[in-house]
UniProtKB/TrEMBL annotation:
Protein name from the UniProt record: CarD family transcriptional regulator
Superkingdom of the source species: Bacteria
Domain CarD-like/TRCF RNAP-interacting: 1-113
A Pfam match: CarD_TRCF_RID
Annotated InterPro entries: CarD-like/TRCF_RID (IPR003711), CarD-like/TRCF_RID_sf (IPR036101), CarD-like_C (IPR042215), CarD_C (IPR048792)
Length: 168
């Protein structure tokens, strides 16, 4: 169980702060059940209520600063997701996003950025599906790294590049 004040990653909502834990007064809520009241850090939309005993929504603590630094150090060695079939690739990317796994988010970003460069070099546009997946992966990754590293979310990309020595 998470504590009040903890920063967690909650499903597709990204980084949230646990505001409270306990029963809530909503008609949709199950009586006698405890809920996390979560405040998303980087998205508008108010408060999220998640059953504390839910096994359907992935929730985990935000990674530590040390873990964040380790992941940044591993970026160059991480494999891309290599699937040629458009539909299969998009489904695989979406599944990777839903894992709430920081390394999977990095793989999604690497995959789409390489694909984006190739398409632009061929005079083609980036697909809408790729743009959506890239945006979601960056929002999730940069939000979590910002909290872990104690920096503003807008500084995360340049921080990563400085740690990697400017490599793409």
């Amino acid at each position: 169980m998470f504590e009040t004040g903890a920063y967690i990653v909650c499903g597709q909502h990204g980084v949230c702060r646990v505001e409270s834990i306990g029963p809530i007064r909503l008609s949709e809520a199950s009586a006698g059940r405890d809920y996390y009241t979560l405040l998303p850090l980087y998205s508008r939309g108010g408060v999220i209520y998640v059953p504390a005993d839910s096994d359907k929504i992935i929730m985990r603590y935000v990674i530590s600063r040390q873990e964040a630094e380790e992941i940044i150090g591993e970026i160059d060695g991480m494999d891309m997701i290599r699937i040629d079939n458009e539909r299969q690739r998009e489904e695989t990317l979406k599944k990777a996003l839903k894992t709430c796994d920081t390394r999977q988010w990095v793989r999604v970003i690497k995959t789409i950025n390489v694909r984006k460069k190739k398409r632009l070099a061929q005079g083609k546009k980036v697909t809408a599906g790729d743009e959506r997946c890239l945006h979601a992966a960056q929002e999730n990754l940069f939000g979590e790294l910002a909290v872990s590293l104690g920096i503003d979310k807008s500084e995360v990309e340049s921080y990563i590049e400085s740690r990697r020595g400017g490599r793409e």
